[in-house]
Amino acid sequence: MGDINRDLSIHFSTKYLYGLKHNEVLCAIEDVISRESINSIQLTEKNCVVTVKEKNQRDRLITVGIKIRDRSVNFVEIDKQLTNVTIKDLPYELSDSFVTTQMSQFGQVVQGSIRRGVIKDTSIENGTRYLQLKNCVPILPNKISFGKHEIRLFADNNRTSCKFCNGTDHPSFKCRDKPQQLRKCYNCHQPGHVSKAIVIIFLVLRNFLTKPMAGHIKRDCEKYQDDKTRREMGEYADEIIEGRRGQSQSFDESITPCDTGIEDTYVIPKSKTLILGASNGKRLGNFSPDVINASVSGASFENIDELLNHALSVMDDTDASVEKVVICLGTNDITRNRSDPDEVNVNATSAVNCVKSRFQCKNRSLHYHSS
């Protein structure tokens, strides 16, 4: 069957006119032309197609348009429908006339339709151009070169193909055949699995709780400091290192394990497990009589003193001892110090030492755990 002539048919998109009825379209058209001038009104899945009897009636609808549900509606010819094209990555210096010339290979550029995109509420351009094409080719390429400049094209009316399946009924980001991007593990940087950053903090805590001498950052490493001193001080390095260690030992001996700044009003309760956490720990609630859940939303390593004082205030059984301390912190610290992981480690170390010191000064046989 040969192509039919549809010169008298025009249409508009019904994308934002949900549940549109024939009578609504008819009433709107009658404000522009008479009912007797209409041959048909067809509602398709995406468009409303109107066929009239005379070309002057068609031209009047295209020129004037109609109004449906307080929304202005513009008609487009079926055989010469306009395609709206968005051009990305164009250099600012390229003139509109040059762009018009280049785009003419894909269709007839509507005169006066080209305009430059700007940043919202400013007059600063963002490198985007918009134009309209008549008799556009069936499929526009996703990328094309204007001389040495590579640009991207996007168009409506299903003129742009998906870069994954070459279909035209959906954008690329909605394609079902889009390959899944493999996420990398935060810990080992290898694809195929993921590991939340908080696990690293818990591993650091576990090292400190079970091995007092294990786990420290580079700038606090005694060997690193000694090597740095030897490089900078030369032949006097050994004397300086010896003096530094002597001062450190004298300073440590002058501090008692309980000098943490926390009120010394603690009464050791019965054998229980103490949870020190943030909102993730608070959600557990008081799930067991053998557990004291002192978690507080928003808690972090930095405010461990406040968290411990809060823990003392909620301990109502004064005839027992704390057997285990579960530290469930780190999420809030990572959120606040994303750009400085060393700061998170330092705060974690300080918090663990504070907890150890607080409980060891009452009972040195206690066991500590983190999760």
Note down, in words, how this protein is organized.
The protein has 371 residues and is of the alpha+beta class. The radius of gyration is 36 Å and the shape is elongated. It folds into 4 domains: 69 residues, Alpha-Beta Plaits, CATH 3.30.70; 93 residues, RRM (RNA recognition motif) domain (Alpha-Beta Plaits); 142 residues, no CATH class; 31 residues. The chain starts with 8 loop residues before the first strand and ends with a strand. The chain contains 10 helices and 16 strands. The strands form 4 sheets. Strands 7, 8, 9, 10, 11 and 12 form a 6-stranded antiparallel β-sheet that branches. A 4-stranded antiparallel β-sheet has the order 2-3-1-6. α4 runs parallel beside α10 and α5 runs antiparallel to α6.
Set out the fold topology.
Layout (H helix, E strand, L loop, with lengths): L8 E5 L8 H8 L8 E6 L3 E6 L2 H10 L1 E3 L2 E3 L2 E2 L4 E7 L7 H8 L4 E2 L5 E4 L6 E10 L8 E4 L2 E7 L41 H14 L11 H12 L3 H17 L18 E6 L1 H4 L8 E3 L10 H11 L7 E7 L2 H6 L4 H20 L8 E2 L1
Parallel strand pairs: 13-14, 13-15, 15-16
Antiparallel strand pairs: 1-3, 1-6, 2-3, 4-5, 7-10, 7-12, 8-10, 9-10, 11-12
Helix pairs in contact: 4-10, 5-6
